[in-house]
Write a structure and sequence with these properties.
By secondary structure, the chain is an alpha+beta fold. The protein folds into 3 domains: about 140 residues, Sandwich (Jelly Rolls); about 45 residues; about 55 residues, Arc Repressor Mutant, subunit A, CATH 1.10.10. It contains 10 helices and 10 strands.
């Protein structure tokens, strides 16, 4: 089911129900949309109208209608309209693990510029960047993700051989963090669960999943936060249930990750905030 802001709000975000690690949105913003933030997923999108401007890797980028945007996990970026008319776009957020299922231990594809006109990526994103009102079935999404992973690797020039490092240890760490995200997880635990020393494991995790174990754990907590907020839970309850020290701790991480406070995020997605 899609959520939509009231018509009285000039900025809006429509969200499709996430399916197996992929979130799809369509949005319209005027002026400043997002503060600087970073998340642990790929953000891949297309500008539909206006000029979509953002800071990325120490430069200002501008995406025009029809351009494809590819933001790598854990890279800081913001978002704003490049002109007074505002901008409209669609975006998918893809967990790196889904691409690793296809690439099988190769380094994650990285596109330096953030914006591309490469026809291979335009074609590979067509299915996933349909209107959020269109419901993808799981097989259709899986096929599209396979095509997109191969297109990203080809455009980025990712080597065909596996990257150095222990992919299986990194995957065990990811599974362990998934199962224990709502509590404190120590490095000693991860070492015991993976059989890998903390320094090597941290390097492997970033190579294969694009972020650190700590950031990955924090993001799983924030995923739970968003689900609970859309269910009208209070901010204090959500913070405690998701494993944050308190409400302000959760809010700081939310803003750094999504570029919006929880209250602003609820406003543009059509949720209702409770204190």
């Amino acid at each position: 089911m899609n959520r939509q802001t009231p018509r009285s709000c000039s900025d809006w975000v429509r969200r499709a129900e996430p399916i197996e690690g992929v979130e799809r949105i369509e949005a319209w913003f005027h002026g400043k949309a997002y503060a600087m933030h970073r998340h642990d997923t790929y953000a891949i999108g297309r500008t539909l109208a206006g000029v979509q401007s953002f800071s990325y890797r120490h430069s200002q980028r501008h995406s025009l209608p029809g351009n494809t945007i590819v933001l790598h996990p854990d890279e800081a970026h913001d978002g704003q309209a490049g002109t007074d008319e505002g901008f409209k776009y669609r975006m998918i957020y893809v967990e790196p693990a889904l691409f690793q299922d296809v690439l099988g231990g190769r380094a994650l594809p990285f596109l330096e510029g953030g914006v591309t006109t490469d026809p291979r990526l335009a074609a590979a994103t067509t299915t996933l960047l349909q209107h959020v009102g269109y419901t993808l079935d799981s097989l259709e999404q899986s096929d599209a993700l396979i095509e997109l992973a191969h297109a990203l690797a080809a455009v980025a020039g990712t080597p065909a051989r596996r990257s150095k490092g222990n992919f299986f240890a990194a995957r065990r760490a990811r599974d362990y963090l998934h199962a224990n995200f709502a509590r404190i997880v120590t490095l000693d635990e991860l070492e015991a669960a993976t059989g890998r020393d903390r320094w090597s494991l941290s390097h492997d995790f970033r190579t294969f999943y694009g972020t650190s174990p700590y950031r990955y754990l924090t993001m799983r907590r924030l995923d739970a936060v968003r689900r609970m907020l859309l269910g009208d839970a209070s901010l204090a309850h959500v913070a405690a249930t998701a494993g944050f020290a308190d409400q302000s701790h959760m809010t700081r991480h939310f803003l750094k990750t999504f570029g919006l406070t929880p209250g602003r995020w609820l406003q543009v997605t059509g949720g209702v905030q409770r204190g």
